[in-house]
Structures are given as structure tokens and as C-alpha cells.
Amino acid sequence: MDALMFFNHNLSRSDISVRYVFQKMFSPLGALVAVECLSRFDHIPVSPEELFRYANADLRESIFMEQLALIEKHKAWFIKNNVSATINVDDHILSVLLRPEVKAKVKALGCVHFEITENSNELLNNSLAAWCDSHSTPLWLDDFGAGYAGINAIRGYHFDYVKIDRNFFWHLMQKESGRPLMDALVTFLSRNQHNVIIEGVESEAHKKWLQGMEWFAIQGHYWKEVSIEQLVKEEITVYGQRRDYGLKKRKKCRKTPASKPTFTRKKSVIH
């Protein structure tokens, strides 16, 4: 069985079993600042990425609305702990988010953000225009470094949060001059007002390699994925103390500013 089956057979939501997990993002001080809601298809022999690539719009929309409802159900926990949730979106889901009733739901939630990939050239070139105003929901740029867009992905529009692709991170780790290059990239993004999140952290070696860089958070399988039930039972602490901060509040998606502000460099401390 391959992913094209989902396109050829036009599967509906009732044809598949889905469970939702949350992957955590931690600040340099060890604070949980956000979680990414991901879909898992235990009885389907294709990756979630392949399924979503070929699934019809109705199926993708049904799954998205379930993810949104799950976060809405536990809104109190997210607000209380100042933790944001992110959901991956494509061109079709962006159009769904522009529906008045969905837009109102997202605004009322106040804790959900949406990730788009730099590989989505059509999305980057066409769909973002409707989102870059003072009333739009913040969008995050996902998988930076995975495709060919690179810096072009952030030239026309400013994303407050940029996630560096895990394979790009791993590739640089194998290069002799990879660490200075990663440090320079993270510094460039950070000092141009992008909060940098590095994906693919799976070991102590990964964490150590990233020490001293200006990233906002790290994410990966070093930390176990959890269900929403497991997540909301957790006491949010940093080294035994409750923490009272989460995502930085930034302006929403906007045109890239002409001037570049100067920032004081902060060293990351990973434990």
C-alpha cells in the first residue's frame, strides 16, 4: 500500500483511525512554552506527511477541526500555564481559517498558532497576503532549511516564529564547520525578530551542540510525545519551581521591516 491509495480511493474520516499527540517545546531555561499537535495513524503503513500530501480536502479539514476542538476543550489548561499549541496547516486549511466562524473560534482560544512549511511555495507566494494584517492569527514558518526557499521564505513576510528543520540541523552537525554556520543562522534570525525553534533534538549530544546559541526553544523526540490527557495532568515546573511565562508576545504577521534593531546576545543554557 502506498500514499496514492488515499488519493485514488478518496477516503473519508470514518475510514481511518487517528490519535493526536503533543510534542513539547522547551526554552533555554527548561520551561515548557509550546506544544505541537500531531496526528498518528497506527494502522496505516504510510507516514502522516504522505497521508496529508495525498488526502482529499474534506479529510484534511476534518482532522484539523478535531485538533482545534481538542485544544478548545482544554483551553483553560493552556491559558493557565501560558502554553501555546500549534497545528500544521496547508493552503486549504488556511482558507478554512478565514471563515468567520472559525476565525472567531481561534480568536476566542487565544492560545493556538499555525505552522506552514517553506516547501509550500504556492502558500508562501499567494495565500499569506490575506493573513498579514493586524487582525490575523500569527503564523509560524516550519521546516526552515528543508527546501529551496531558504531566506526567500522570510523576505516578503515576517514570521514571529521560525522552526529550523530537523534534517537540516542533523546535516550541519555532521559538518566540520556546521556549528558556526548554525550559530550564524540562528543569530541572524533572532536579531531580525524571529523566535527560533530548533526541531530534531533527540539526545544530550544534540542539546550540548546547541548550547550558547540564541534560540527561543528546542523540540524533538528527546522528550516523549504525550496525549492531551497526559499533558494536562502535568504540573508545569522549571527545576522544581512553577514558571509564569510562556511565548513572547510579538506583533502578528507583518511586512519585513526595513531597519534592523540591535539586540543584546543571550546565551542559551541547556540542562
Report on the architecture of this protein:
The chain is an alpha/beta fold and 271 residues long. The chain has one domain (19-245): EAL domain (TIM Barrel, Alpha-Beta Barrel), CATH 3.20.20. It is built from eleven helices and twelve strands. It has helices at residues 4-8, 48-54, 57-73, 75-81, 91-97, 100-109, 121-125, 166-173, 178-191, 204-209, 228-233, and strands at residues 19-26, 32-40, 84-88, 112-117, 139-144, 157-158, 161-164, 195-198, 217-219, 237-238, 241-242, 254-255. The strands form three sheets. The protein has an eight-stranded mixed β-barrel. Strands 6-12 form a two-stranded antiparallel ribbon. Strands 10-11 form a two-stranded antiparallel ribbon. α10 links the parallel β8 and β9 (217-219). α8 packs across α9 (178-191). The longest helix is centred in the N-terminal third of the chain and has 17 residues, at 57-73. It is globular, with a radius of gyration of 18 Å. 31% of the residues are buried.
